[in-house]
Amino acid sequence: DVQLRESGGGSVQSGGSLRLTCTASRFPFDDHDMGWYRQGPGNQCEMVATINTVGATNYADFVEGRFTISRDNARHTTYLQLNNLRPSDAAKYYCAARGPREPAFTSDVGPPCWGQGTQVSVSS
């Protein structure tokens, strides 16, 4: 079974930075696109950033150049560098994967925001 484990969340002040890490196991990481999603209180699950198998990236409009997604295939790890955090970025952040014949990203237990996640809190 696919396993995705997120870490690196925490509490920071507005303008602060965090680096989120997603460690993947039990599936062929190299041929999966990887993504980060988030869900804040009362909000829907939303895509933050994705990176495909050759390193091409895609970001949500609200990122505005503040976040960077990357992957290390040798370590089966995906990162999300969060810079210049805002209170509106406070949410639980989730890692997700999409295989070569899969239409959508999923967590290890279902839709992207169903996984374990890691909490990011930002104070003003």
Q: What share of the residues does DSSP label as strand, in percent?
A: over 45%
The strand line-up of the biggest sheet is 2-10-9-4-5-6
* Tally of contiguous helical segments: 0
pLDDT averaged over residues: 96
For the biggest sheet, the summary is: 6 strands, mixed
What is the alpha-carbon Rg in Å?
13 Å
Helix content: under 10%
H and E string: EEEEEEEEEE
Low-confidence stretches: none
Overall SS class: mainly beta
Shape: globular
Through-space gap between termini:
40 Å
Number of beta strands: 10
Question: What's this entry about, in short?
Answer:
The chain is mainly β. The protein contains no helices and ten strands.
Question: Care to describe what's here?
Answer:
This protein is mostly beta strands. The protein has strands at residues 3-7, 10-13, 18-25, 33-39, 46-51, 57-59, 67-72, 77-82, 91-98, 118-123. The protein starts with a strand and ends with a strand. The model has no long low-confidence stretch (mean pLDDT 96).
Which characteristics define this entry?
124 residues; mainly beta; 6-stranded mixed sheet; single chain
Write the topology of this structure.
Elements: E1 3-7, E2 10-13, E3 18-25, E4 33-39, E5 46-51, E6 57-59, E7 67-72, E8 77-82, E9 91-98, E10 118-123
